[in-house]
Amino acid sequence: MITVRAAQLEDSERIAALAQAQVSAWQHWNDDGRVEDVPYSMLTIYERWLHGGAWMSLETAAIHLGRLLLGAGVALVAEMDGVPVGYAEAYPGNEPEPFGMHLHLGGLIVQEDAQQQGVDGALYAALAERARASKCARLTTTATAGEAALLLFQRSGATPLAQLQRFSLAARTGQGLYQAVPEAATDAKQIAGWAMPAGRVTSARQQWEALWQPTWDILPEMRARTRRLHFAASGHEAFVVFQRGL
């Protein structure tokens, strides 16, 4: 029997194990500048992060789940016979059309031997109910959520909503007036109703939680590579995140 419930902080270790089982090889750069396979225990927390984000270490997993439980998003666990075998996290958002008020599935994990048993469908149904309860018009996902999430949405009758395009623009010289200042405010209400015209590879809210919040500045390597600016020009405003070579 499959049951779905809200995640608890005590689930951090189990969810992290489910996520880490998706990684086929653990690697890092050696002193000669070459990539080599190494045991998980030899990696730093930052090196583990590079394999898939916060769930790659118990330390960062607990912090990440804690933020979701405090309201940054929705975290659900699917159990079979009382054992967690699946996990989904989603983020509420309010963006201009075609997205509108939505709940965005940012990640879906199902234990390998529990796949094809309806675990993903149970998580989808629970998320759909959450979306209805919070008056979200849509339940969305993107390719970055993984193949399992995309296949689940396709089976559920989802239709394409938007397509990401990549552009390369030549630099142009000229003069203009603008203001760019370091920004420390982190309340997601600041972006309610805002469009994300560049870099929207998940949802604006998910990327706000991942990039704008200074949570991961506790990792020195992340702190040294990240800058957050409030940019204003010609009556327009934007929050801009720069990250160098993670």
How is this structure best described in words?
With 246 residues, the protein is of the alpha+beta class. It folds into 2 domains: 2-155, Aminopeptidase (3-Layer(aba) Sandwich), CATH 3.40.630; 179-243, no CATH class. Helix content is 28%, strand content 27%. The protein contains 7 helices and 10 strands. The protein has a 5-stranded mixed beta sheet, with helices on both faces. α4 links the parallel β6 and β7 (138-141). The model has no long low-confidence stretch (mean pLDDT 92).
Please state the second-level CATH architecture of the largest domain.
3-Layer(aba) Sandwich
Shape: globular
Largest sheet strand order? 1-4-5-6-7
The main pleated sheet reads as: 5 strands, mixed
Structural domain count = 2
Number of separate strands: 10
The name of the CATH superfamily of the largest domain reads Gcn5-related N-acetyltransferase (GNAT)
* Strand portion: 25-35%
Residue runs with pLDDT of under 50 for 5 or more positions = none
Keywords:
about 250 residues; alpha+beta; Aminopeptidase; 7 helices
Blueprint (SSEs and pairs):
Elements: E1 2-6, H1 12-20, E2 27-29, E3 35-37, H2 45-49, H3 58-72, E4 74-80, E5 83-95, E6 100-110, H4 119-133, E7 138-141, H5 147-155, E8 179-182, H6 204-212, H7 220-225, E9 226-233, E10 236-243
Parallel strand pairs: 6-7
Antiparallel strand pairs: 1-4, 2-3, 4-5, 5-6, 8-9, 9-10
Helix pairs in contact: 1-3
